[in-house]
Design goal:
Layout lengths: L5 E4 L4 E4 L36 E15 L4 E15 L5 E16 L7 E18 L2 H7 L6 H4 L10 E11 L12 E14 L3 E10 L7 E13 L2 E11 L5 E13 L2 E10 L5 E14 L11 H42 L2
Antiparallel strand pairs: 1-2, 3-4, 3-14, 4-5, 5-6, 6-7, 7-8, 8-9, 9-10, 10-11, 11-12, 12-13, 13-14
């Protein structure tokens, strides 16, 4: 699947250009999965949660360089990103802590100015994601088309209907942070709308539209689009496009790489990132890992919403009630038959 949309950005504008986009293949079903469901190695969030009672850790190390043509600087970047995700209450819901710590070494290409070194947390966000709509649950319940192999293995119009989730979180920023625009401590919101399409042939398309720190003087707005192709059950390749804009910094970044599943609970990945401008230009390499502690002990199917969901729920209640009545009649009949048999034995003596 090809998506045309990269942004070449400056401080105040973004202009579309064309690229290919790919994403991770490990978030393929709506509820708990036998394999780890991770957002790595890209920056986007899939629509689905990790699963109820699943505790998951995701982390990565990024090393790279930035060159700024106007400021005549070259900056060596070291970044450690981390994420803790936990599925609570229902299959649709997860809570998470996501953040990163960054260290910069800034060198000046003109003059004899000494290198400038600083480090701090680039982000720390506590939030929750909820799956609003899952088009795949109904298809899973219906099962494959038993009369048409071709229909089961080709793209259909209904594949264009994505799963949809919303994320809301709070950023906790520290004072005097050289990596951020605001000098004082603050707590600000972040919201993300995520969609996910699972296509035939191992392709998964994820789209995020986000607004970050929008109650501060320097809000950030942007998107992330990721498309992945799983070459087999354990290996995938991806390309991702991220565009964002604020008065503090705007850019467009393309990422690409590969991910491998070591076992059902362990995932590793490798990716590269670059952009298309020189204020600054950037080139990053990242290696990541994700591991889950799977305490999921019961499969729970996500309920349908609206009228159809209420009707299905009522039908399930009526069915359970009818089964209880049938069991009561059956048990009563067994007790009566046992009593009659005993009486017959007494009379026969």
């Amino acid at each position: 699947m090809i998506k045309s949309y990269i942004f070449e950005s400056n401080r105040n504008s973004m202009r579309p250009i064309i690229t290919l986009l790919f994403c991770l293949p490990f978030t393929l079903t709506a509820q708990y999965t036998d394999m780890i469901n991770t957002n790595q190695p890209g920056g986007s969030q899939g629509a689905f949660a990790v699963g109820k009672s699943v505790l998951q850790f995701e982390s990565g190390i990024t090393i790279g360089k930035e060159k700024h043509s106007l400021q005549n600087t070259e900056t060596d970047i070291f970044n450690w990103d981390y994420s803790v995700r936990y599925g609570v209450w229902k299959e649709e819901l997860e809570v998470s802590l996501m953040g990163s710590f960054q260290r910069n070494k800034v060198g000046y290409t003109l003059g004899s100015v000494d290198d400038d070194r600083f480090s701090n947390f680039k982000s720390n966000t506590l939030g929750a994601k909820y799956l609003l709509y899952d088009p795949y649950r109904k298809r899973d319940l219906e099962g494959p088309n038993l009369y048409s192999w071709k229909k089961n293995h080709r793209m259909q119009w209904e594949d264009l209907i994505p799963a949809i989730s919303v994320y809301a979180g709070a950023n906790f920023d520290f004072a005097d942070n050289p990596l951020l625009a605001t000098p004082e401590s603050s707590i600000s919101p972040k919201v993300v709308l995520s969609t996910q399409n699972n296509f035939v042939g191992g392709f998964v398309l994820v789209t995020n539209i986000f607004a970050d720190r929008f109650t501060t003087d320097f809000p950030t707005y942007g998107y992330i689009v990721t498309l992945t192709h799983a070459t087999n059950r354990f290996f995938s390749v991806f390309v991702e496009n991220q565009g964002f804009m604020s008065d503090f910094y705007a850019d467009n970044i393309v990422r690409g790489g590969a991910a491998a599943l070591i076992n059902q609970d362990l995932h590793v990945d490798l990716s590269l990132s670059l952009n298309f401008k020189d204020t600054p230009s950037l080139f990053y390499g990242r290696i990541g890992v994700a591991y889950r502690f799977d305490m999921h002990d019961k499969d729970e199917y996500i309920e349908e919403k609206g009228k159809a969901g209420r009707e299905a729920k009522q039908a399930e209640k009526d069915k359970n009630k009818a089964n209880k009545k049938a069991n009561k009649r059956k048990n009563k009949r067994k007790r009566k038959d046992s009593f009659d048999s005993d009486d017959g034995n007494v009379e026969g003596i």
